[in-house]
């Protein structure tokens, strides 16, 4: 195991920023550390870097305990949210800084910086100062600077947060490509799930200082383990009384159980369009939103409102229209778990175990 | 200040600019021009003889050297005080912070007599230093101490905001790249502080050259030894030697204008850099 | 070039993880040196004034500060301040309005010219008025003819004080108003507000703390000005002596206790200035935080 974190906790003036977090990461993986703002992601990253010391727990890099190793000695590259470039140094000197600290000889520094300039597409900019660069270029300099001393591990704190939405997409793809070419183990913090899903090999979902789930983007999306993850990942509607929904009255859900429904779990249409009309309930279209590739519908079923998608190829529905609503499945959630439950009416009246 | 168009919809441009220029001219520009007019009444030889007189040259030298020494000392201690105030926590910090402004608020004559009382041979510090053979009052050292008092806030107050706004990130970036404290200070923090330090130094130096009230009491005013240039102007005036006084003043004025231009250039340059990033 | 830099100590900057601060020993040593330096250079003179003032007992102190010459010096100082400070306040607001709300050529030159009095030695600030209005000055003969006294009289003292304190308020307001931009004023104008309405209802509330701060600094300097006033006053006891000049005369006559007693009054004023300044800084920073 390349990186291993065991039982790490950190308190700030009574606020539990990181609570008993354990995970391990294999060499060469690109990890997305995802969670809401203020959830402890950045603190966790800073603890890995050695910029903060944990109150409890151990951190191993290559099997070696690094708790008492100073950040200067950990061999970790760090890309800061606002890049933290050295304003008074040009691009070349920024990138070379870590090498000059290590007393690398001049020719070797030149060779390494040149290599990174080519890698990051900054060739020709080496004499520029940070204030003469665009946001994307600054990001690349920060990246090159962190990579120059050949770190074992690269940490990136919200690397795309300060960049225009347009350039951001381009940079993400570039970064993913670059990291996979270099094969360097990397962890990046983000609060944007699209970004995490798109870029990461594996995701760590962190909330209120706790690690909620670790896994590939697909596994986290399809098999959320906790209520938080089920609600946080993807677009979803929280349903207070799932037992009132057509089909789910058979599932013997206890009173007060909550459920989460994703739009793709819901089929909405005129009666003849629905595959299992017997499993569908009557509902009313409240709003129709155009979402580019598809339409999003806000539909009222009984006392519940759910979101659903509809293809642009299908016949359009109007607000106020009576429709059939089939809820294929939902996540029944409790404090610590999320379990998927299929609509029993859809599959025949066979008993379903929760 | 971009974004405002050449024709603003706001009123009062003519009135406010007109009054500004009028008042500036009446209070500052026309009276200052008087110095040049008056000097123009002298022949070149008269002017040259006045300003190259041994006593005058000595006074320039004393003013320049003591102001330079005081500004250099303030550069070091001003940086230290700003650093301590911004970065460390200790009891009474707010109070100490206000105390730094005292030299701005205290009348110079009051500072002058107080420093003289302390450093006179029978004063608190004087009685400690005299047995060691160190004379402060009525020597250039005394003048320098008065100018340190006067100039201290300039350095502290120009460095402090810059130090306060330095991003922690940048220092942490240096740490992650392997730099320890001293190297981070030298290579990362110091380059950011050099512009405000230069500005603070220039301000303290300019103020020191012209300072009068805090210096006259402690200097002892011995010609060729502890007589500063502003005092010499005063002496010439008391002897009704208006041309002499004006000639000395002209040289000082030109020197201060040059300083002022340098200071404004420094501030303009650092503002531009801050604005650009 | 004034002390017109408002720097509010923020708590944030002093909370630092251990890798970006010094070791405790280094910290304590640095704090120690800084405090020792301040104690020697600033605190010691401050303390000495009160000690010297009360050296000969409270009676001498009271007698010194209630001496008719001291009272008349106080009156003259107040009178000077009452003229010079409002003049410079009006100027400061006008200059800051023109410079911060409009674009015109030569703006930087104008800002530099406003700074000029800071760069001029106080003695020269007095000298320039002697050269204009003194007996041998340019307007001297004409003034003598019409029996108008400026030099060695009140007008000269007011003029010199005004010159010395000229940039304080403008210097405080210009950066403040430049940072605030013109959006709020333009919004008010587009809603139909007229010139003075815009100023009183939009601009003034935004700049009031900065303005107050500038006035306090201007006031402190006006009260304490020594060099420039010394040149133009003529040192006529009971007539053209301001408080700082009175202190000098007493000192030169070896009436040290009396001199320090009067000085202690000015020290109190300086301390009040510092307190008000702290309050203003605190108010303006909390106003700023509320806006952010």
UniProtKB/TrEMBL annotation, chain A:
GO MF annotations in UniProt: ATP binding
TM helices/strands, residue ranges: none
Entry-linked InterPro entries: AAA+_ATPase, ABC_SmlMolc_Importer, ABC_transporter-like_ATP-bd, ABC_transporter-like_CS, Mo/tungstate-bd_C_term_dom, P-loop_NTPase, Transp-assoc_OB_typ2
Domain ABC transporter span(s) in chain numbering: 3-233
Gene3D superfamilies: P-loop containing nucleotide triphosphate hydrolases
UniProt keyword terms in alphabetical order: ATP-binding, Nucleotide-binding, Transport
Superkingdom field: Bacteria
Stated name of the protein: ABC transporter ATP-binding protein
Organism: Paenibacillus oenotherae
Lineage: Bacteria, Bacillati, Bacillota, Bacilli, Bacillales
TrEMBL record, chain B:
Listed PROSITE patterns: ABC_TM1 (PS50928)
Major place of residence: membrane
InterPro entries referenced in this protein's UniProt entry, alphabetically: CysT_permease, MetI-like, MetI-like_sf, Sulph_transpt2
CDD domains for the chain: TM_PBP2
Sorted UniProt keywords: Membrane, Sulfate transport, Transmembrane, Transmembrane helix, Transport
Transmembrane region(s): 12-37, 57-86, 98-120, 132-156, 193-222, 242-263
Keyword RNA-binding appears in the UniProt entry: no
Domain ABC transmembrane type-1: 60-263
Topology of this chain in the membrane: Multi-pass membrane protein
Cell compartment(s), UniProt: Membrane
Leader sequence residues: none
Subunit description: The complex is composed of two ATP-binding proteins (CysA), two transmembrane proteins (CysT and CysW) and a solute-binding protein (CysP).
Family statement drawn from the similarity comment of this UniProt entry: Belongs to the binding-protein-dependent transport system permease family. CysTW subfamily.
Function: Part of the ABC transporter complex (TC 3.A.1.6.1) involved in sulfate/thiosulfate import. Part of the ABC transporter complex CysAWTP (TC 3.A.1.6.1) involved in sulfate/thiosulfate import. Probably responsible for the translocation of the substrate across the membrane.
Protein's recorded name: Sulfate transport system permease protein CysT
Organism: Paenibacillus oenotherae
Gene: cysT
From TrEMBL, chain C:
Record's keyword terms, sorted: Membrane, Sulfate transport, Transmembrane, Transmembrane helix, Transport
Residue spans crossing the bilayer: 25-51, 71-97, 109-130, 150-170, 211-236, 256-276
Source organism, top-level taxon: Bacteria
Domain ABC transmembrane type-1 per the UniProt entry, residue ranges: 74-277
Function: Part of the ABC transporter complex CysAWTP (TC 3.A.1.6.1) involved in sulfate/thiosulfate import. Probably responsible for the translocation of the substrate across the membrane.
Subunit structure: The complex is composed of two ATP-binding proteins (CysA), two transmembrane proteins (CysT and CysW) and a solute-binding protein (CysP).
Official protein name in the record: Sulfate ABC transporter permease subunit CysW
Species assigned in the record: Paenibacillus oenotherae
Annotated gene: cysW
